[in-house]
Amino acid sequence: MKRTFLEDDIAPLATGAWILGTGGGGSPYVSALNMRELCRSGHSVEVIDAGDLDDDDLVAVVSGMGAPLVGQERLRDPVLLGRAVTAMEDYLGQSFRAVMNLEIGGGNAFASFLAAAATGKPVVDADAMGRAYPEAQMTSFAIGGLTMYPLSLVDVRDNEVIVTKAASWKWMERISRRVCTEVGSTAATCKAPRTGREVRQWGIHGTVTQAIALGRAVQKARAAHADPIEAVLAHAGGVALFKGKVVDVDRVTSGGFLRGKAYVEGLGDDRGTRLEMGFQNEWAIAMRDGVAIGMTPDLLCLLDTVSGEAIGTETVRYGQRVNLIALPAPQILKTPAGLEAVGPRAFGYDLDYKSVFS
Amino acid sequence: MKRTFLEDDIAPLATGAWILGTGGGGSPYVSALNMRELCRSGHSVEVIDAGDLDDDDLVAVVSGMGAPLVGQERLRDPVLLGRAVTAMEDYLGQSFRAVMNLEIGGGNAFASFLAAAATGKPVVDADAMGRAYPEAQMTSFAIGGLTMYPLSLVDVRDNEVIVTKAASWKWMERISRRVCTEVGSTAATCKAPRTGREVRQWGIHGTVTQAIALGRAVQKARAAHADPIEAVLAHAGGVALFKGKVVDVDRVTSGGFLRGKAYVEGLGDDRGTRLEMGFQNEWAIAMRDGVAIGMTPDLLCLLDTVSGEAIGTETVRYGQRVNLIALPAPQILKTPAGLEAVGPRAFGYDLDYKSVFS
């Protein structure tokens, strides 16, 4: 089924993607600015389903790469994302049928739309994370054992690199991250091309539509002066885990990532208890008084108590009133291969995955 | 004219290339070991002249890249260099007619021979420096304004990167250096492919033959118990600049380069004076009592007083008896564009180039 992405979809996509970003992926609101300009200047983007792809169609998986704070200063750029796609087409000697997001969470939710506007190709309603994750090997395509190369990376100066082979997903991450850092910690990438068959089998489907609908649910609750957090929980089948006030943040940028902990003192029913949330770009684990109450791959979302707006790991700060909720993870992330890639141990926590939803 | 490179040519090539390396490029003796194995196992390499190339022949310009000390532990590897060449052929969809050295100075003198043995292609008797230099933009091809991309880089783990575009020679250097560092500071590269016409116009010709002949002159002098340094001067038209004893070395590895100064106290006619030699991988400048007596692009060669063996910037040490000599630079390095790329100011010395030979 084909439909057109409209200017009216931009704000809900930003709100929904920011929640699904579970603290990471960078704020989508800055990318939304460029998207609004494109819509207003007459660009229109079609959205298609994974099921609309032929087996042998080629799909470009696009994402902005870099440090979130740099991404706040230099907006995701349709020309640059488009160049990453055409660089890959030049390398392959083949054209892409469509583009899709690497991750629906955070600012990269708009990467496929910006690339689509630049190239005239439709967006596939799918991604490879169902959320945001910090590393290249943390995707459903990696979990499916698909090839991780080639990858194209372009910067604003006309540098263009193709990683034509990588010894592993980790090596792909290391090499592309280094190049990205050297060109200023902001670049556009086109990941390993996927066939229509691969996207149907290993993609996480419908996530663009889900993000927009989630954002709409929040907007609707706000307009009706209802509780937006209740709306998120009801809409997405989530669970409320904790409510409180941020009392401390311990944050460091290391090895190209934002790592650290945020501490929340309980309010209401949680008064007298203390929450500790560990993160690597995204929220990875939540401990209440030393006991894990939520962990990756369940989506841990820290939301502003009043507005329901997502709070990022780079913007969380002392004094914020927050609600921690969990949303269900895509099924593939909960398989043994999925947990190896994105379970608590992949983030350094020596714990077996226990879902909030099981 | 075509001739065969023989096992007997290996030792003279190593000795000659080490002198032409002007302190850098890494010792060629370790690369010579792999070349000897290849010769003994029946590999034979043909050497052709640049004049033998057709206008549209494609030539692969190969070199090992990385930190000299890592290159002492992991010998330049024919399989790896061959993979850099075939990776580029795969990318181009075209075959190379021949391979050539990026730099004749130091260990990279053997890069083309190792790649030739691996791929069955002949070696062009030419290079792009006539010596060794530390950075990508310091070549006759860069001085000629030729394109700097694409470049292929492969490592021992099956990682393979193509820099398909670069905004400048400096950017090519920065990006490829970063990837090289990430994969362990040792990699094989195939630089931007050159046509036969480009090699004829912008290559520095005959440098393989020159290096072998220079090495033979040293060997012959040693065998005759004559002064090998006199032999180098006579053979290559050089000038003796200083004689003394190394009294101090101030050396630091920074930004992927070996930088520093070596201090030599005069002996014989130079007694009572002091020499200070500045280097960035290669010897760049020589000051006697504060006055420049030799500078890049003239080749500054520090040779062991007794053996005539070259002394590298990474091996120079207290107590060595040394002779500093200068050999003439290839003409192209002395043009205005050449001096901009490799003159004293390119190494941070605010001096006009004054040749020992003018």
Please summarize what this structure is.
Two copies of one chain form a homodimer. Chain A is an alpha+beta fold and 358 residues long. In chain A, 32% of the residues lie in helices and 28% in strands.
Written description of the protein model:
Two copies of one chain form a homodimer. The first copy, chain A, is α+β, with helices and mostly antiparallel strands and 358 residues long. Chain A folds into two domains: 205 residues, CV3147-like domain (CV3147-like fold); 121 residues, Beta Barrel (CV3147-like). Helix content of chain A is 32%, strand content 28%. In chain A, the strands form four sheets. In chain A, strands 16-15-14-13-12-18-17 form a seven-stranded antiparallel β-sheet. In chain A, strand 12 and strand 13 form a beta hairpin. In chain A, helix 4 packs across helix 5. Chain A is globular and about 60 Å long. Chains A and B meet through helix 4, strand 8 and helix 7 of A and helix 4, strand 8 and helix 7 of B. Chains A, B: This is DUF917 domain-containing protein. Chains A, B: Pfam families: S-Me-THD_C (PF20906), S-Me-THD_N (PF06032).
